[in-house]
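Obj.: predict assembly geometry.
Materials: sequence records (below).
Method: joint structure prediction, all chains together.
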Amino acid sequence: MGLSGKVTVMDSGAGAETVLGGGIAAFCEGCEVRDLTLCAPLDDGELAKLCSILHSTHVDAGRIILEEEEPADYVFNVTGGCIRLFKLLPDGRRAITGFLFPGDFLGLTSRETYAYSAEALTPAMLCRFPRRKLEGLFEEMPKLERRLLGMASNELAAAQDQMVVLGRKAAGEKVASFLLLLSNRQVARHVDANPVIVPMSRADIADYLGLTTETVSRTFTQLKTKGWISLQAQGRVLIRDEEALRDLAEGV
Amino acid sequence: MGLSGKVTVMDSGAGAETVLGGGIAAFCEGCEVRDLTLCAPLDDGELAKLCSILHSTHVDAGRIILEEEEPADYVFNVTGGCIRLFKLLPDGRRAITGFLFPGDFLGLTSRETYAYSAEALTPAMLCRFPRRKLEGLFEEMPKLERRLLGMASNELAAAQDQMVVLGRKAAGEKVASFLLLLSNRQVARHVDANPVIVPMSRADIADYLGLTTETVSRTFTQLKTKGWISLQAQGRVLIRDEEALRDLAEGV
DNA sequence: CGGTTACTTGATGCATATCAAAGAGGGTGG
DNA sequence: CCACCCTCTTTGATATGCATCAAGTAACCG
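Observations (raw structure tokens):
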């Protein structure tokens, strides 16, 4: 135990704090991302039932939430902060397979273990569901399963887009695609499209785009020099010429 | 109409032939991939109902089955042959997002349009379902929806593996990963793991791995020179040193 | 058996990686 | 509140793996 990253959210010790379970929908009333999550299609009574099996949890930045190959006993809804999903090669190379934001779902797998590791990139809030209990609710609430299928389909489409980025786009196109992706996801959660909030490091972006830290940095500089973006405080990126960025991203 | 690739399987004209619909499960009796497909969890009565909405179709090699951005009115089960899924950039660059084999599912999307194009790479057999009718059966047969969620989760895991390949592996590691993937998928459909049957061209493999035709070819030659594989007739690849190939693929 | 397409091999170039070091934030303790 | 330190970012110089361009060879199909 202690401060090592090996302590996950499943052990309810060491810093990750459980807030609530069991009650009625009161807790979910204030949820700002309800229309994006698993819970979107449920009425108040159904929501209460779902609430009875969830634990809302805060995780500190840098904390590991779950690890590849570990038993997939829980699934999560992200309600705040940003999470990175990644896979490691034996020699330490890292591939980030996605970033999660409020409303996103975490931990879905058809196997008995997780397919990737997940780490909080900023302080984050999660709703944690025991997987078996959630599956137990499917019969009673088929809407839940339908919703999960819809979310999985969306993730699949996003994964396919990312394969195009990784396999066939040049560095500039990759970075432009990335900025527009973040911008679009802000819109989905009712945040202004511009400026783009970039909470992740250059190294994270590099591992997501199949580049190096240096190349990502150079590419930002080039976009800035062209006047298409400007870099602001706290990792904010102002898009100054969206059309140019979009053309670049699409490979026109 | 005519011979242009623009004629898809949805138009039931020009070469793609509908075999049957409507009957009882008789047609499915001989299906060799029933345990892999959507139909796996269904009993005979349920299968008959599913049969009543399906059309079994043969498609010629090279024929386009569905196109990105077109209305997603049908979904398909592949029962024979090999299909490539791809996305194009405006300047003609192509990214192949996956290859489908018997037992695989095609056309799943949460949106109203397909997320990619699909083309028969060899002569192929498909079971075609009207999407709305299939969704209509979900209430009656929740097993069907459960199965679809499982298949989508599997696809998602495969997509994440592929992101690691595309983003962080070198050419040799990519090709080794690819050969082992094909081998593993043969095992899943009860085909011997070795030799690996490679029905796709070097260009297809290149577009799947984010390489060029020439690099794929050179890499095959290198693996051959090391004695790890040998190239046989009809695109068969004999794996001679699986452990070496596996270590290479995993990046050890 | 000839034509066509796919594959292989070679020579060269370039985009991005790698190695290296300086500069900018951001948080902490005095 | 300021100074210091640590980490992240930026920039520069060089190296290299893969792409590109080019041509020969093998496989396949009618």
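Conclusions so far: Chain B touches chain A through 47 residues (CB under 8 Å).
To do: check interface contacts against the pulldown list.
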